[in-house]
Request: fold
Amino acid sequence: MSEELQLFDLNESKMPTNPESIENAYDAAQITVLEGLEPVRKRPGMYIGSTGPSGLHHLIWEVVDNAVDEAMAGFCTEIEVRLLDDGGCRVTDNGRGIPVDEHPQYKGKSAAEVVLTVLHAGGKFGGGGYKVSGGLHGVGVSVVNALSTSLVLEIDRGGSHHEQVFKNGGEPSGPLKITGKAPRGRTGTTVTFWPDESVFEETEFRAQTVLERLQVMAFLNKGLEIKFVDDRKEHEQEQTFKYNGGIVDYVKHLNVSKEALFKKVCSYAQSEESQEVEVALQWNTGYYESIHSFANGIATSEGGMHEEGFKKALTNAINKYARSRNTLKEKDDNFLGEDIREGLTAIIAVRLAEPQFEGQTKAKLGNVSIRSLVEKTTNEKLVEWLEENPREANQIVQKAQLAAKARMAARQARDLTRRKSALDGAGLPGKLADCSSKDPRVSELFVVEGNSAGGSAKDARDPKTQAILPIRGKILNVERAQIDKMLKNNEVQALIAAIGAGLKDDFDLTKIRYHKVIILADADVDGSHIRTLLLTFFFRFMKPLVAAGHVYVAQPPLFSTLVGKGKVYLRDEAAKTKFLSENPNHKAEFQRLKGLGEMDFEELRDTTMKVSLRSLLQIGLEHETIADEVCSVLMGDDVELRKKFIQTNAKDVRFLDI
Reply:
């Protein structure tokens, strides 16, 4: 039982019967006070989400967010993020520099030291430092300090260069000191930190992850120059992002991998005293809506009031235009919002003085006032744009008409599927070997490539908690298929029925029959393609399943070798290299395992399916715009873009079929 659960274990059999002993068991001595940065060291996951790769990179985002806040306030034009060869990271900006004078509440300490060593300290709380800021919790750079073995703070301010060093999880080595003059009147802050290996599962930063996030930040901050430098051997590169078009350039970028319906990007903005909105949108010939919203630079993946206002006004504006042009006749029903949004790529960026974030992951904006501003602005500005661009407006209306027809055909296909399910009884696909457990929290669904591998998996599974769904060949590429065609595909129907929670707007996460949906495919190119097809399907039609962390990829071993009378399995090239370094006298050959069919059921069970021995890769949805772009690039029609993407990410690929 975990420590957290023990705190709340009030089982009657364990409680003392003497009331006096109950009182004595809970006194002042039981109250633990964690001071300074201790809480962060004690429970890092509470502050950065996890101690895995996403938590590691969160350290960079916290420091960069501070620099971006300076940019949003109008004081910073350049940010540099540099990955050092010794494993550290340096973030430099040309903002005002953290204040260096003594803090009124902490005598003898500079404001800069307080920011680095006290949780919830910063310029974002009183309203005087920043009108708007991206920090959600105000813990920021102090958390980075707490989770680093060493951090060096440099501030150029008032003509002087100040430095302070922190060691061992945030302890100052000495006070903030002036070490010289600031170069040529420069102002700004530089933070260099080295993540603590005792905290994180791994401390090597991934360049592509950093680049993707920095690019999004540059799009959202028009004219801000963000430079990325990787000084690490074998990774050396430089890249600079600067977008004078801001979110207009962002929409163009997202639609590069798709075929735009027309070249123009519709954009508009409006501001009030304490809030502002900026919107850019363009349609493509695809079948999926890609609406991405941000509040003070923070991705609001669960939407919120700004998205609600936009969607309502968009539906109203297009229907109003279609009726004014008599495209929608008096007897015709209005287009639904989903008809209008098919193929839409839109960015909604708002800034507010006091953002209210809701939802399980604090990714939903709750400010009611912003809904009114976005709705009013869209109703006015979009209607104007449609009137001024009749050719593009007619193309939007025609696409909505086709989408409405496909929606009605899809409804018929769904109804037919439901009627079939009712006649069949339970409604589960015949080829599904279900588990006996009815508790989704412990149940797993293995989606297995091929019938033969499916047979091995059935023999290898734990029938109590593990269900097997074999799929034949490669499922339909849903990126290129409209929903009515997709719903007629047998493999897709089987997936929807087995998971049991519906799809798209009707998807209900509370109804999923398994909390782990595991893709089990061969460790070769075909297997990689099948994994990508399935991940694209889950992202496009069951996005909440991915966002909640219920989708996994099984990792069958790539190599096996004999050691004495036994066989050792190695997951990948890195594992093979490590094995050889630890066993330099090993001459036995390595067998490369390509197909699941090459394994007997005991091997499959012990290497890939048995809970105590296997290794699963959990699929997350850290940044929705990046996931959207990757799906479009990998599964779309642009061969050159796909080739470029694969070449760029080749060093991060685990399975490479030579």
Notes: The first helix runs from residue 3 to 7. The first strand starts at residue 78 and ends at 83.
